[in-house]
């Protein structure tokens, strides 16, 4: 019964001159081993350096979720969703931090308990000491190298060091949730690529979660869309074909019938706002969601150029039952 789970959404800010903000969930997390957090961070021109707008999201206790960056310039704005299932029969979560050292392209971390890789996914959030507006070297993928090892990888051996917070979310056997994972490359000269799933997935109860790296800097290079386009196909795309490469780790999570509903869609938005201006955009959902049981997950491309703003990410939440 997935209605026993709950979702808490919120917005917060790491203020100028600070590296950390800690929030207290309205509803205490009953068991942190049965909870995870998803978050996005962005900012204005004052946070254009990678170390100012790359933020890790970490559940550190039943009443604490910490958002941490390495830099201290500008306000880092964050949207987050805390998902918890406290009855013990749906998920088990292991978490930790892996350091990818300066000049390294990968690093691994050991889990304290073995997981079933056919029922598990890896989520990541990153903080970086890169004191420039070059995001590419701080984008990573997270995967299970084996049942007891998480591997974090990036595209280039840049001089920045990363602290990558991971969550390994393992669905229990009783939950009967299927997880498929694939890795693909979006090569130079291509605007999109597809992955064929080993097992067709029911589109109305399948969530796709993606992480990726990038060989080059720039807004177009570091913003990818990732979606289930039919029962057997995940499509990854960017704003345009160009001379750069992305490597993408894809997870497709399919719930059994009559348990969870997943709605999806796409939207095109062209902002005419001036630089360094906040832009809000509302999407009307095709069907209403249940407040307290629903969370959004958004990927996006951008046709923007340059690297002077952290505007390759949207903050997102569900302000009403019919809007995103």
Overview of this structure, please?
By secondary structure, the chain is mostly beta strands. The chain contains one helix and 18 strands. The chain has one helix at 50-53, and strands spanning 6-14, 20-23, 35-42, 56-61, 64-68, 76-84, 91-100, 106-110, 120-128, 141-146, 149-153, 162-171, 178-186, 192-196, 206-212, 225-230, 233-237, 246-254. Strands 1-6-3 form a three-stranded antiparallel beta sheet, with no helix packed on it. A three-stranded antiparallel beta sheet has the order 2-5-4, with no helix packed on it. The protein has a three-stranded antiparallel beta sheet with strand order 7-12-9. It is globular and about 45 Å long. The mean pLDDT is 95.
- The side-by-side strand order for the widest beta sheet comes to 1-6-3
Helix content range: under 10%
Q: Which oligomeric state applies?
A: single chain
Largest sheet: 3 strands, antiparallel
Spatial separation of the terminal alpha carbons: 25 Å
Show unreliable segments: none
Count of runs of 4 or more consecutive helical residues = 1
The Cα radius of gyration reads: 19 Å
Which class do the helix and strand fractions yield? mainly beta
Averaged pLDDT: 95
Shape: globular
Query: How many beta-strand segments?
Result: 18
Percent strand: 35-45%
Helix and strand element order: EEEHEEEEEEEEEEEEEEE
Please tag this protein with its features:
324 residues, mainly beta, 3-stranded antiparallel beta sheet, 1 helix, 18 strands
Task: Briefly summarize what is shown.
This protein is mainly beta and 324 residues long.
């Amino acid at each position: 019964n997935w209605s026993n789970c709950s979702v808490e959404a919120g917005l917060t800010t790491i203020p100028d001159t600070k590296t950390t903000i800690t929030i207290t969930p309205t509803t205490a997390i009953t068991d942190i081993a049965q909870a995870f957090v998803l978050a996005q961070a962005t900012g204005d021109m004052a946070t254009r350096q990678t170390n100012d707008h790359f933020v890790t999201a970490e559940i550190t206790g039943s009443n604490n979720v910490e958002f941490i960056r390495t830099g201290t310039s500008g306000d880092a704005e964050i949207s987050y969703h805390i998902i918890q299932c406290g009855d013990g029969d749906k998920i088990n979560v292991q978490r930790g931090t892996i350091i990818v050292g300066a000049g390294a392209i990968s690093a691994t971390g050991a889990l304290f308990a073995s997981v079933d890789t056919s029922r598990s996914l890896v989520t990541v959030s990153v903080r970086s000491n890169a004191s420039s507006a070059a995001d590419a070297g701080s984008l990573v993928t997270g995967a299970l190298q084996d049942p007891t090892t998480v591997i974090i990888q990036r595209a280039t051996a840049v001089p920045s060091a990363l602290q990558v917070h991971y969550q390994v979310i393992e669905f229990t056997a009783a939950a009967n949730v299927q997880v498929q994972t694939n890795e693909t490359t979006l090569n130079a000269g291509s605007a999109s690529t597809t992955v064929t799933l080993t097992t067709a997935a029911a589109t109305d109860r399948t969530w796709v979660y993606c992480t990726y790296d990038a060989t080059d800097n720039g807004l177009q290079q570091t913003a990818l869309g990732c979606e289930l386009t039919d029962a057997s196909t995940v499509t990854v795309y960017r704003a345009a074909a160009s001379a750069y490469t992305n490597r993408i780790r894809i997870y497709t999570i399919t719930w059994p019938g009559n348990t969870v509903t997943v709605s999806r869609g796409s939207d095109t938005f062209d902002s005419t706002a001036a630089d360094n201006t906040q832009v809000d955009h509302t999407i009307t959902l095709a069907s209403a969601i249940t407040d307290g049981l629903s969370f959004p997950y958004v990927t996006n491309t951008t046709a923007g150029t340059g690297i002077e703003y952290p505007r390759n990410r949207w903050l997102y939440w569900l302000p009403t039952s019919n809007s995103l």
